[in-house]
User: What shape does this take?
Amino acid sequence: MRVLAPGGRLVLLERLARPGARGHAAHGLTSGRAEDLARHLTAEGFLRVEVQTRKAGHRNLVIVRGETSTDGHAAAA
Assistant: This one.
């Protein structure tokens, strides 16, 4: 959060991995890990944190988004 301007956005995009996947198939985030990350971002003061999945070609992607407050301070949890 400290490197984002007030009102800045954090957008993380990664391949959606299946739980228990191994090797190259394990590269990415599972739905559970994406939700964990969203909870951590919320705990750190990010606002409007959301997790979405999208289809891109033959791949499924997971997107984790959050925003900083417009005054540059962490939001109260």
